Amino acid sequence: MENAPTQASSLASGLQISEEVEQRFNLVKSVGEQCTHDDELRDLLAKKAAPVCYDGFEPSGRMHIAQGLMKIMSVNQLTSAGCRVKIWIADWFAYMNNKLGGDLKKIRVVGEYFKEIFQAAGMNCENVEFLWSSEEINARGDEYWPLVMDIACRNSLAKIKRCMPIMGHSETEELSAAHILYVCMQCADTLFLEADICQLGMDQETVNLLARDYCDDIKRGNKPVILSHHLLRGLQQGQTKMSKSDPSSAIFMEDEEAEVNVKIKKAYCPPGIVEGNPCVEYVRYIILPWFNEFTVERDEKYGGTKTYKSFEDIVTDYESNVLHPKDLKDALSKALNKILQVSIAFWRNNTPVRDHFKTNSRAKNLLKQVKGYKITRTALSKEMEALSVNAPNPASSAAGLQLSEEVENKYNIVRSIGEECIQEDELKNLLAKKPTPICYDGFEPSGRMHIAQGVMKVTNVNKLTTAGCQVKIWIADWFAQLNNKLGGDLERIKVVGEYFKEIWQAGGMNTDKVSFLWASDEINGRGGKYWPLVMDIARRNNLRRILRCGQIMGRSETEVLSAAQILYPCMQCADIFLLEADICQLGMDQRKVNMLAREYCDDIKRKNKPIILSHHMLPGLQQGQEKMSKSNPSSAIFMEDEEADVNEKISKAYCPARIVEGNPCLEYVKYLVLPRFNEFTVGTDGGNKTFESFEDIAAEYESGALAPEDLKKALVKALNIMLQPVRDHFKTNERAKNLLEQVKVIKCFSPCVYNLINHIACILT
User: Fold this and answer.
1) DSSP single-letter state for residue 85
2) Residues 575, 414: Cα–Cα separation, whole Å
3) What is the largest CA-CA distance in the chain?
4) What is the mean pLDDT of the chain?
5) 177 with 160: CB under 8 angstroms?
């Protein structure tokens, strides 16, 4: 990217710049190999005396010299120019990237070791803050996570994947879901820390540009200036960067003199070639900035001692073979050892790095621990296993377990709810051992409530509480926002959530053993437990596995997806454990993410897996509609539909004579009427006939004895009986009336219309 001209006496904003500002600008800009928009940097320094600069690192293993010396020089230059530097110790990011096996205790030790080195080696910390990402995010999770989710919603999966170099990966590699979450979080960090300048390596540029794009998207004026520093290559031929897993590829901050000498001696340093020469790069980016000169000591016959003040002079001599690789290497080793061993005046009398790690007991202990850590990625630690899920309850197999009549009755009630139950023996065992199992149910608030969400849920919840279950209904407001329901407008989503609660209570739900829990409130209140769990689930599952869960959001894995569609399944899986659920009572369309939760239990060796009880999904009323659609009112009965609406919709519903399979009217009878009334009465020319089983109804219908028009009349009557209490409530209760009016207005707009309205509003304001 081209930079603006450096010579300027005024800015595009019209501000006149002083000599002092120009000096500060030159000092700050010298930190980076590349700066996006010099004019923005000048403008910032002219307007703000102490701009905030964001820097950071993933604690993982020992510190190589680029992380140490280059960061110290950069930070000291920035603070000299008046900047406040926030150094982000990205412990949660190292965890997601599976550094040190995802062991947060080890990651914490390495973070402290890095801080120790920075301070010992001369970082001026007067205007520097070291911030642990886990602590800062936990303290202000209500600000941070909505920002992450908004970034995820606004960016396609393909765009996020292009940022993979920030984690040392390519977008073509086998990626985990955590890699997607990582990018969204790092993008959020910039804004969360209120950074004016992002001072990170060239490998981080894509995510920094993502942050600027996001600012454009939300119409945020003050975008962060990106200042990207050079990345030193590894010491061996072909190594484009240093590697902590290969000690010969880099000099480490506590390397002994002999180690430095051996590594530089063996380093790749082709005579006459500067491009791609790691030894020449060390001189350019470490030695010259540190000492402002580079002295080569030689015998007179080889040219004698010479002190270089500029890199250009070094290049000239090296390319012309006046400066030999051996002489350059000897001088480089000497300079590096001097930095690592000898106290420099501006170190403010700190102990040199090597001596500090030999004489300071805390530093010695940190270094000993860090040297013992393997850099390779390993299995999850026991500490994180404990953090990831609630401590498992001891449970034995149902085999051989004698069930009492009471437990058998409870089992039959609970089992009747699900079209499918994963491991019936586990359900029996649970009901035998736990008097009040926890059942997790939930919904995304979005538009009006159709009859399956209303009547079926009321019936199912009442059965569960009758069987002794405690039901936790998860009002998934943040999930609706991630899925861009109601245009992602959280206020509207909350209105719809309250409307749903009002309907269930009016429709006869026994709420004595029911808790309604707003996802945003619960997650904000327990973020310290929830988000590490989400991250753990994300890092253990590849993108292909998570993409297969797209059905839970009404998506297919072949659609063009946003990053939110990756975050959503990981969060829904985590919900189950956060709520300590024994049973997941959700629709068949949620089965894949519930299975993900059971697979996660296998992965972390958790014995008591959640039991999956999946209820049937009612089809739409029209032919070929596999499911109801809120955007097509004729496809479903809604809970506050008037009697005339119900009559008209059922009269027009698909109901082919003698055909049971795929007949929505018969499905309404099977899954709504019979479970609610335990019978279905049909009036015919021969009089009324009452059915107590669906098998009898199906037999009569297939034989032609039960005609479609008679079935429809009986169905209309039964549905109107169920819905009348809700209608009455929404006509007489002021709160309910107000909610319904708001929801009816809300439902008229699709996400596209919402986005258009918001865009117009932004233009007008």
Assistant:
1) E
2) 21
3) 123
4) 87
5) no
